[in-house]
Design brief:
Oligomer: single chain
CATH topology of the largest domain: FAD/NAD(P)-binding domain
CATH architecture of the largest domain: 3-Layer(bba) Sandwich
Helix content: 25-40%
Strand order of the largest sheet: 5-4-14-15-16-13-17
Number of domains: 3
Largest sheet: 7 strands, mixed
Shape: globular
Strand content: 25-35%
CATH superfamily of the largest domain: FAD/NAD(P)-binding domain
Number of helices: 11
Radius of gyration: 21 Å
CATH class of the largest domain: Alpha Beta
């Protein structure tokens, strides 16, 4: 995905910007749940436009017993194709050149810059912004990864089912290890539905999920990898910066990555512009890393956050569902949760409930 305004500060400094994109068509195929918070859209400056298919009151976290807790945070469902085309037009209007249906196959250092060998040609570049997805050639070239892990996701556009219009649904179950099933209403009679999980059972789990929720008419099917708790050595090095999925910038709980991709790309463009200024070159890459780590989406405790949610057993999840019984998390006090879990002799869940309350309250702010 190309990010809005990523190229603008570079071109103001006189840089020529080339975007190499593997896709034949901008925004297609869709490999995304297409959901983002309204607060995030506003922060990106993209809270108004035809790329917003619908807005929702929040989302339900359904437990295996079908009881749920409600997260009352404004959400938007995007048309990823329209969204990416908007970013494409913004970049082109700033003078960026696009090479579609082309991808990098090798990179070598050359004369204070880099020579990029693509599927069609070769290009010499002084600086590189790597936004080439979770299996990043650029990230591997700069040896940025100490550890990488992934979950896999299925995406299905399906004829909508009644009852899922005002909110998203995220369904937790041991059937989906390290993940969940989801139902996101796209409006106009369609839902974006599928499963996210770790392992090799994506196809079977996807079929089971569609059958379970009685989705029969499927218009489009896709899927892809999502970064899970990347351990990075650095995000920039010697004229190269990583952003979005290439930098592992997805939530370790929801796996959302649109907002981090847009913001990190914008920061990369700004720092790239500073690199054009000879007087400011010193330590400019360290500045990208420092700024990135201060962003609200940056996770200092990603593995711990992930473990807090996805190590729970079905029985533990069910107790949380029974406690909430459809209420917003804001309506459940820590005192009430403590009394309830003591009565249920479920002492081990209490720290998770306290963490979940604090984490959710923090995440709903952006």
């Amino acid at each position: 995905m190309q990010v809005p305004r990523q190229q603008r500060p570079l071109q103001k400094k006189g840089a020529r910007v080339l975007v190499i994109d593997r896709k034949k068509k901008i925004g297609f195929p869709v490999q995304c749940g297409e959901t983002v918070t309204l607060n995030s859209l506003k922060a990106m400056g993209m809270d108004k436009g035809g790329w917003i298919r619908t807005t929702l009151k929040g989302y339900r976290m359904l437990m295996p017993n079908n009881k749920y807790i409600f997260i009352d945070e404004g959400m938007a469902i995007l048309s990823r194709e329209i969204f990416e085309n908007e970013l494409y037009e913004r970049a082109k209007s700033s003078g960026a050149i696009y090479h579609l249906n082309e991808y990098a196959i090798n990179i070598k250092k050359k004369d204070g810059g880099y020579r990029i060998f693509t599927s069609k040609d070769r290009v010499d570049a002084k600086y590189i912004i790597g936004a080439d997805g979770p299996v990043s050639l650029i990230g591997n070239f700069m040896q940025a990864y100490e550890k990488r892990d992934f979950v896999v996701a299925s995406i299905n556009y399906a004829e909508s089912r009644s009852g899922y219009r005002d909110y998203e649904s995220i369904i937790f179950s041991s059937k989906y290890p390290d993940g969940y099933g989801y139902i996101f209403p796209r409006n106009d009679g369609e839902d974006n539905v599928g499963v996210v999980l770790k392992g090799k059972n994506l196809s079977a789990s996807n079929k089971e999920f569609l059958k379970r929720y009685k989705y029969k008419k499927i218009y489009f099917t896709s899927g892809g990898l999502i970064p899970l708790n990347f351990k990075m050595r650095y995000y920039s090095k010697e004229g190269i910066m990583l952003c979005g999925d290439a930098a592992g910038l997805t939530s370790s709980v929801s796996y959302g990555g649109i907002y981090p991709a847009v913001v990190s790309g914008r920061l990369a463009g700004q720092v790239g512009a500073e690199m054009m200024d000879e007087k400011k070159k010193k330590d400019v890459f360290k500045r990208y890393d420092r700024i990135l780590r201060k962003q609200p989406f940056f996770q200092k405790n990603g593995e711990k956050n992930h473990e807090m949610v996805y190590s729970m057993k079905d029985r533990q999840m069910n107790l949380i569902g029974e406690l909430a019984n459809g209420r917003s998390f804001r309506e459940i006090s820590i005192k009430e949760a403590t009394i309830y879990l003591i009565r249920k002799r479920a002492f081990g869940i209490l720290p998770r409930m306290i963490w979940m309350y604090r984490y959710t309250n923090k995440m709903t702010k952006y």
